[in-house]
Every structure is written in structure tokens, then in C-alpha cells.
Amino acid sequence: MIELNVLGQSESNEASGCASGSCGSTGDQLSHLPEEIRKKVFNHPCYSEEAHHHFARMHVAVAPACNIQCHYCNRKYDCSNESRPGVVSEVLDPDQAVKKVMAVAAEIPQMTVLGIAGPGDPLANPERTFSTFRQLSEKAPDIKLCVSSNGLALPEHVEELCKHNIDHVTLTINCVDPEVGARIYPWVFWNNRRVKGRKGAKILIEQQQKGLEMLVERGVLVKVNSVLIPGVNDEHLKEVSKIVKDKGAFLHNVMPLIAEAEHGTFYGIMGQRGPTNEELVDLQDACAGDMNMMRHCRQCRADAVGLLGEDRGDEFTMDKIEMMDIDYDAAMVKRRAIHEAIEAELEVKHNKPNEALVTLSAIRKKETRPVLMAIATSGGGVINQHFGHATEFLIYEASATDVRFVSHRKVELYCSGGDTCGDAETTLEKIIRTLSGCEVVLCAKIGYEPWGMLEEAGIQPNGEHAMEFIEEAVAAVYLDMANNGQLEDKPVAAQQLTA
Ligand code: CLF
Ligand code: SF4
Prior knowledge:
By secondary structure, the protein is α/β, with parallel strands linked by helices. The protein has two domains: 50-322, TIM Barrel (Alpha-Beta Barrel); 356-498, Dinitrogenase iron-molybdenum cofactor biosynthesis domain (Nucleotidyltransferase, domain 5). The chain is 35% helix and 15% strand. It is built from 16 helices and 16 strands. An eight-stranded mixed β-sheet has the order 10-9-8-5-4-3-1-11, with helices on one face. Strands 14-13-12-15-16 form a five-stranded mixed β-sheet. Helix 3 (94-107) packs parallel to helix 4 (126-139), helix 3 crosses helix 12 and helix 5 (154-163) runs parallel beside helix 7. Bound molecules: FE(8)-S(7) cluster (CLF) and iron/sulfur cluster. Iron/sulfur cluster binds at residues 66, 68-70, 73, 79-81, 120-121, 150.
């Protein structure tokens, strides 16, 4: 019999090497991995779901040029293969980038990973990208180096990537069929000329697959990103997932297309829609049979700084960095101490009995329906955020046998400080719409007004589990619902998943 663990993946899936954190248990999500891989991912916030509660990443925007055109990209903005479209990053030269990384390492000791993800394609800017990596591998060897690419120039740079100990490479693969590719990529720049349509897509696909094989052969952990474009590659992504898994990719991250007319992209102007939350989760679930899925991606910007989901980039503009007076030796000692403290805390958690599963085992009737719960957290894996301070909610699904992380949903800030909450009513209505499908909101605190409106909408606010571990609190609330007979009814009719 296949047993489900607390994050909802089967043990057989675990055995296949999942580290996404969408599998694994609250015990130790990575315990099934070989020690050498575990060391590579345990503090990488993208490669381990658990790590993203504790460790931060940063990007430096050193790579402005690109060698292909994607229909979801407007060159004015960052590379949408790894970023939300519609944001523009300050482009840095490699020396500025190194200075910035050192400053962030000192100020945010939880930062463990430096990624280069744009604003164009890092491997279409090899001198700038590798100069940054070269300097950092000397000056800050405790920082993991990470890169994201469309893959066109990947095969020619694999050796150089390995030389710099870059153990994490993200490759955006939206298709393995040139017919599908021709609907996504109008052209690629290859051998000094533009190659259009199907021919161009075929070259890109061949380069991506070759690059993937070369990286896997050399033991590099490859994460594949795919942009889900309804009606273009939605069904096709299941095949993509299977092929990249067979070739040894470590993780698959299916991201939603974001196409707004104001971004000026081809898809935006043509009215190509993005997927609904439900379509995204369904496809991730369908691919999960074949592949380890990442579900906690935040589509960060090319100069993002901080925990996934938070953006502290404004604190680290070059003018502010020039003014900082940092004692780097003291900062490095503090970094080590903080990393050790987080690791010790996780060790304790992993060695404890799995409290969430213990709680769920008290549910006598096992055919209860699953329930979605929205969590306000600012990190640490605990419920520690005021409802009014949340800019996103983590969505967990509880059932009689497991608790699993499903996705996150971004919201506008409800309470922007001061005595009043301004036009909070409209903002609150939008938040409630974003949380549709959820039956409970768990937060550290919540005001009377949002409490009442959430209840009216059929979403039960709950502040009783402040500072508790998320999975344990979700399991406890689910048990209460079971004991109160709330799981025999259908969910509130109004709560349909929406985009
Ligand atoms: Fe950056 Fe990407 Fe490395 Fe992470 S992001 S280069 S693997 S360090 Fe992470 Fe951000 Fe999603 Fe990217 S959440 S967009 S997957
Ligand atoms: Fe834009 Fe990135 Fe595509 Fe290049 S690879 S066209 S920067 S989305």
C-alpha cells in the first residue's frame, strides 16, 4: 500500500528522489536523499520547500541581453522565464553586483543563495555572468551560486558553469515539440542570424535537451521551469515533465503565464489568458505523477532580495550600499552562527514525532472531505503574521491522512498602518475573493472588521494558533472541524476557486 506523508506525496514518489518539499514530511522532507544532494538543497529556498521558510535568496541583475524572443516577454522588463513580467531591475556591472551580494550577506544572514536570472538571459551575457560568479566564489564561498537560462547557449557554457561549482541550474523548457514551440517563440538568434518559427523552436529545443543531459551527466541539479500557457502548451507540459524527468532533471516548476495588455507583450496584446489557480494546481498534480514538483515559486524579479515572497530590494540600491558601513568579518561570524541555529532548530523538528500526523490519526472517520486553509506567515514555518500585514497567503490542504502545501496567493496589503485602513473595504473584498475556496484563515492576529467579513464569506478566521508550526496547526484545526461534524457537509457553495 502506498502511504501518504504529511505533505501529501506518496512514499513511492519520495523514493524517486523528491526534494521539492511538496513531498517529504514534517519530520524531514529531505531524509530520503543521498547525503551529497541533501547538502546541496537543504538551505536552497527554491529546491526545498522547507528551506524557503528559513533561508533567503538574492538575484543580481547583471545580464541585460537575450538571444531569443518569447511571446510572453517585453524586453523593457525582466526575463519572464524566472520573473513576474512588468518589473524593471537596475542593471549592475559585475563589480557592483559583488559589492551588493557582500552587503546583503552581511545584513541578511539567512541569505544562502545568489542567483543570476536576468533581466535577459544570463548565458547570452557570459562575460558579465561569469565575472560575477568568479569573484563571488572567491570572496563568499559559503554562498551557493545559481543560474537560470532559456538554454539556447547552455551546451557551450556547461564546462564553465561546472568550473565555478554552480550546482543549481534552472532551465526554462516550455515544449519539446517545435510545432508548439513556434507558438511561443517567434525567433531565436542562432549563428549570427534570426531563425524564425518552427525552425527556430527546433534549434532551441535541441539545445535545451542537450544542455540538460550534459548538466545531469556532471551531477548538476537541474530545475526545469515551464510557463503554463492555456491552449498552447497546457496538455503538452505533461509530456515535457515526463521527458525531463527521464533525463534526470531534479525538479519541475510549472509557473502560470502572466499576460496583461499593459505589459506590451505579444500574448498580452493578443488577449492570451493565464491559467486559473485551479488549472495550475491540476496540472501540477497531473505532472507530479512523473516528476517532483515545485509549488512555492514566487516568480521573483531579477533583482529580488530576501525570503521568497518578500522583496527587500529597495533596501539595497547601489546608492544605499555605498553609504553602508559594514564590518564584514563580524558579519560572517554572525552568518555562521545564524545558519547553525537554523540547522539545529530543523534537526530538533525532524527528530520529533510528526505531530501533524499524530493529530490526524485521532480522526475516526477517514472519508472526510479535504479543506483548504490560508496561512499568514512571515517565515520560519510558523503562523506569525497579522492578517492585515500579509501580502500573500500560503494555501495548505488538509485531509484525514495528510497536510500538504498547495500554492500561495498574493494579495494587496489590507492594513497600511496609521489609525485607519483607508479604502480597506475594497482591498478586503479583493482579499476575500483571492481566498475563495479556502474555509479557514490562520493568522497571528486579526481585526474585528476583517473577522466579520471573512465569516460572512464563509471563511473562518482563526488566531488561536499563533506561533505554532503551520502543518501542526492545520492538522489541529482540521481535527476540530471533524469533531464538530463540519467535514460531512459540502464546502460553502460560493467558494469556487477563481483566477
Ligand atoms: Fe533565483 Fe531561480 Fe536560483 Fe531560485 S529564484 S535563480 S532557482 S535562486 Fe526560485 Fe524565484 Fe521561483 Fe526562480 S522562487 S522565480 S524558482
Ligand atoms: Fe524575455 Fe527571458 Fe524569453 Fe529572453 S528568455 S525573451 S528575456 S522571457
